[in-house]
């Protein structure tokens, strides 16, 4: 059986050998949830870029630019980081360039060595689990964290994915054991548990209650978001052949 | 109220500002449990050193040398890393020099900036909690981890200490929220939960079942182990004045 590992922060990713593995990058509030929502709402592609300036420059190349810093839409950007902006196919067919605080970094650090990088979100949890079972490669769940530190919501997602994959994969990793157990304990009241999250984080997330509700919705979308070259695109797990 | 933070790995300690704070270093299997046991059994002091060779050289200076690599007593060393070796005051009055895989590193990385470095172990959990309440400074619980990664038993200890300190301290840290919850879920069967720990770690811990039982004993000793200069010494929390 193939293995699952959890990496709890981008600051720890160098401890994991990513070669031959699929890396699931997760930044629940809100980068990867927003990317999955965009792809489910027919955007053509989403290109994550590291800096605000690089992202801004892509506007001239026909990209819709999306960016936030500390939870706010960055100056001169059309979009911030709310998944709700993409609903009703608002950006159908468009190419999006996006920069976010934690999520972009985690993607960047994963793509060099991994076989594949895909997006993790509660919104497409089962589709992602099905895809990983079908691919049958070792998996690393890479939590984007919060400024390099352990992050509650990303870690709970990691636990949820381990739970869905148990039986198909082994998990020989203390992080996976801990986060699966933590998710099982709180799965019926994720929002209540997350309300305890750190004060600094809650301040950052002020006025995004609707986004948070949305990002905690399970299995709304039946697609996988996959990095191809520099851009994330939609993959339908049932149709892709290995 | 003063704050508690958890640092889940020495690889993340640079994200924490340790100035003015007390750092509780924890390596449950077995470095810090063994050190607490030694201090409770009347050793004079325990000096943690980074390398095997440095430690070996201290024999000539009159130290009893203790060292393990990958769970085994290192060649030419009198002691390995078993807490049981120190029982019945077997090394009463002796100065011990010790090197271990993860614990020594965590102490080394903590001592530069912290106000104080003390030892964390289930064996003296309440004494340590009482000491921290008495001192009334911000606290960072520094988990030694396993080869830089998240470690189940050290994290559970961190959760246990947060639980004992709740009401006296605030914890504005996702790691603290998560580990307190995980400890609460498994506090009545720590050993059963820890039996799920990673296969590689279990192999490393082979033939140390008696040590593991001992290290999971709660509140056996009423003392605090504190770094003073280069050596860990025993402090009686009731008698020290601030």
Low-confidence stretches of chain A: none
C-alpha end-to-end distance of chain A = 18 Å
Mean pLDDT of chain A: 92
Placed side by side, the strands forming the largest sheet of chain A appear as 1-8-2-7
Number of helices of chain A: 9
Largest sheet of chain A: 4 strands, parallel
Strand content of chain A: 15-25%
Write down the CATH class of chain A: Alpha Beta
Q: What number of domains of chain A?
A: 1
Please identify, by name, the CATH architecture of chain A.
Alpha-Beta Complex
Oligomerization state of this entry? Answer: homodimer
Greatest contact pair?
Answer: A-B, 31 and 31 residues
SSE sequence of chain A, one letter per element:
EEHEHEEEHEHEHHHHHEE
- Give the number of DSSP strands of chain A: 10
Q: What class would the helix/strand composition of chain A place it in?
A: alpha/beta
Say which CATH homologous superfamily of chain A is assigned.
ComB-like
What gross morphology of chain A would you assign? Answer: globular
Summarize the structure.
Two copies of one chain form a homodimer. With 242 residues, the first copy, chain A, is α/β, with parallel strands linked by helices.
Characteristic terms for this protein:
homodimer, 242 residues, putative 2-phosphosulfolactate phosphatase, four-stranded parallel β-sheet, 9 helices, 10 strands, ComB-like (chains A, B), ComB-like_sf (chains A, B), EC 3.1.3.71 (chains A, B)
What does it look like?
Chain A is of the alpha/beta class and 242 residues long. The first copy, chain A, has a single domain (4-229), classed as Alpha-Beta Complex (putative 2-phosphosulfolactate phosphatase). Helix content of chain A is 33%, strand content 19%. Chain A is built from 9 helices and 10 strands. In chain A, a hairpin with a 2-residue loop joins strand 9 (224-228) and strand 10 (231-235). In chain A, helix 4 (125-135) packs across helix 5. The longest helix of chain A has 14 residues, at 152-165. The radius of gyration of chain A is 16 Å and the shape is globular. Chain A starts with a strand and ends in a 7-residue tail after the last strand. Chains A and B meet through helix 6 and helix 8 of A and helix 6 and helix 8 of B.
């Amino acid at each position: 059986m193939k293995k699952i590992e959890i990496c709890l922060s981008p600051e720890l990713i160098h401890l994991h050998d990513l070669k031959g593995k699929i890396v699931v990058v997760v930044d629940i509030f809100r980068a990867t949830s927003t990317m999955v929502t965009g792809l489910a709402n027919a955007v053509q592609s989403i290109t994550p870029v590291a800096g605000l300036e690089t992202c801004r420059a892509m506007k001239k190349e026909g990209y819709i630019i999306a960016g936030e810093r500390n939870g706010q839409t960055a100056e001169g950007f059309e979009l911030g980081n709310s998944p709700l902006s993409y609903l009703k196919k608002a950006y159908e067919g468009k190419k999006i360039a996006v920069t976010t605080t934690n999520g972009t970094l985690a993607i960047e650090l994963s793509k060099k060595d991994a076989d594949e990088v895909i997006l993790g979100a509660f919104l497409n949890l089962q589709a992602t689990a099905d895809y990983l079972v079908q691919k049958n490669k070792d998996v690393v769940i890479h939590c984007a964290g919060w400024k390099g530190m352990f992050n509650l919501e990303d870690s709970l997602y990691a636990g949820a994915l381990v739970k869905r994959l148990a039986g198909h994969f082994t998990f020989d990793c203390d992080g996976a054991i801990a986060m699966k157990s933590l998710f099982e304990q709180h799965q019926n009241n994720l929002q209540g548990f997350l309300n305890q999250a750190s004060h600094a984080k809650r301040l950052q997330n002020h006025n995004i209650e609707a986004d948070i509700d949305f990002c905690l919705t399970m299995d709304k979308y039946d697609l996988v978001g996959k990095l191809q070259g520099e851009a994330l695109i939609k993959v339908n797990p049932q149709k892709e052949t290995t």
